[in-house]
Amino acid sequence: MATGAMALVAVSLGGPLAATASAATPTAATPTAATPTAVTQLVPPCGQGGGPNKFEVFDNPNFSGACQDATNPVPDESNPVFNFNDKLSSVVNNTDTEMCLFVDSNFGSISFRSEPHTKLASIGDPFNNSISSIEPCP
How far does the signal peptide extend, from start to end residue (predicted)? Predict the structure, then answer.
């Protein structure tokens, strides 16, 4: 790079932890209309306080252990993608919606209700390690 030249560095996040960088020498600027810039709100990963409108479930009491985002209905927690069947012990409901947690798959049997904007460090018996499906309450 020539003396007095400036370098422009752009960083683009391509995934949760992936980043790439490139350098370029600026060229003469042509006056243009202002370009709107996008603002991205970073949402904490599961288990770190939750993001807005997230319903997170944990396999241990006190919001510890493995964590999953269960904001959308989960008809069968034994699904290999979710894989939380009969493992839930604590929940964080950062949504405006009451969530229903069921003992059986496909929203069957008795349910436990998690009120909006609440945290339960232990869901207790008979629901601890017994939940098999989750959906917003009707």
Answer: 1-23
